[in-house]
Amino acid sequence: MRTRATRWAVGALSAFAVTAGMLAPVPATADVPAGYYDAAEGLTGDELKTALNDIISDSTQLSYDEVWDAIKASDEDPNDPNNVVLLYSGESRSKDANGGGSGDWNREHVWAKSHGDFGTSGPGADAHHLRPTDVQVNSARGNKDFDNGGSEVDGAPGNFTDDDSYEPRDEVKGDVARMIFYMAVRYEGEDGAPDLELNDQVDNGSQPRMGRSSVLLDWHAADPVSDMERQRNDVIYEQFQNNRNPFIDHPEWAGEIFGDGSTTPTPEPEPEPGCGEASDLETVALSSLPADARAAVEDARNGRTGETYENREGILPDCEDGYYQLFHVGYSDRVIAGDGGEFYYTPDYYETFQSVDLDS
Length: 360
Prior knowledge:
By secondary structure, the chain is α+β, with helices and mostly antiparallel strands. The chain is 25% helix and 19% strand. The chain contains nine helices and 18 strands. 40% of the residues are buried.
């Protein structure tokens, strides 16, 4: 039975524009060559996946040694050209500190190479999913699938892991998802490479599968494409492999291929509490929260996130009067913060009010 850690972090789900229930493309700031995706326009589902495979398979194959140079260019720190930005920790570290020792960074296979047993050639040397990562953090991730939960990773605050999955920090959740989407489209069992596919499970072992697909789609929606991703896509295309990650250029295609046609989260209902509806709420003192949760709550109380609602006679025990703040916790849960320093945790879209065990 896997154990999950419940963490509290404020965050809006997505900055994508929504058009007719679909994710609209990110504004084109990347250097997409004219006509590059013409063969994919207007397609959906498997036809879209096949067309994109044809497009991005026209590429230059790097050796595993050449990947070092590719990463040093693609993941260069925009504030220090002598450094790269490590994927999971976000740390800026010298380009020359690459290797296999403590304090070094190495080449992280975001699609774990044991998932399909492809080693360090072909998909194992594809710069679109190879990122600089601290050696110890890379070891902590190992070959685990991606999912929410676990204990915080030493050396990489905001990353969590357990026996069968890894959760990256919020700032790169979408990056990870889009790299996995790329790999599942690029490698379809051709030229001796395995047929890589997503599934909605973890602990995939040596199968050419990676999960959890539903979580990756959530991450894709929650963490929109960044300027650094676009820059990275351009560098790999122009200087190294001559192919692109289509899910950076067209984020809406992820839902078309891997989802239900949309990666837009279902809107949550607004709460309509009345006196007597609340039950079994747990009060948690601010001082007892972990540092990251405490910072999130303090931000909310200071008005930097969330919305303030007047207590409508019943959202808290005994129907106290006053004002309470409502804000996002993770991707679905909510928390209500009281004026006096007490904090009431409520999951599940306010359909029920339950206590939340922060240690399980």
